[in-house]
Amino acid sequence: xxxxxASDLSLRWVQPxxxxxxxxxxxxxxxxxxxxxxxxxxxxxxxxxADRTWTFKRVGVFNTRIxxxxxxxxxxLAVFRPGWGYGGTLEAWGRAYAxxxxxxxxxRWGFAGQDGAVIATFGYAGGLDHLFRLEGLAEVSxxxxxxxxLPLLLTLGWYIMILISDDNAAIAGAVVATM
Length: 179
Fold this sequence. Notes:
Blueprint: E1 10-14, E2 22-27, E3 30-37, E4 45-49, E5 53-59, E6 65-69, E7 76-82, E8 88-92, E9 95-101, E10 108-112, E11 118-124, E12 136-140, H1 150-178
Antiparallel strand pairs: 1-2, 1-12, 2-3, 3-4, 4-5, 5-6, 6-7, 7-8, 8-9, 9-10, 10-11, 11-12
């Protein structure tokens, strides 16, 4: 796995094996990050880049949040607090990033900095190739200054996109079951 480069503006999340909850963030043919779930069901996942490794986990019932931790640690490094309609705020090392929907249908999402400028965007990939795999695009906004938290934003953003997809699938299944 190689480090992120300043020129890595258009990236894609791929799921190499259908059915396995393992994803690679690729810049061209090079993997720059991975995201893997510990179990087939559950919310504990490990994100890895060339420089860092974190665990992500959705916790809580009434006060839901996503914790970002070092593997094996109980100390939160960062916390994502969801808001209305899957939006929310990531608080990381004294900095805050807003997670917001970028289109009406909720197919594009992004993290914005404190000035409101979008730093990174995410979208699901479509087409017949993606019927059994969850894949998507991640883009760093051109002209974005060097953001120390970019690897975290790119991996946590995809984690949130997968949770949104899982939640929507569960809702659709419940609707169909009640018909």
